[in-house]
Predict the structure.
Amino acid sequence: MNLLRSILAEIMGLFVDDEKLAVSILGVVGACWLIAHVTHDASYRLGLLLLLGLLGVLLASVLKGARR
């Protein structure tokens, strides 16, 4: 049973290694979805906001990891 639990934990670790990064990505995507849903606009500005938001989250995670 412990072996199975360990294997499942390793598999989950492949997808969710940094919980804060995963939550931040979901937050950016959710915010962009909410903006698109409320404004009924799917223009390039929303795509740019999504791109810059995700790059910002990634950069913050890399800088945080480099400090460790």
About this structure: Residues 18-67 form one domain. Residues 44-67 form the longest helix (24 residues).
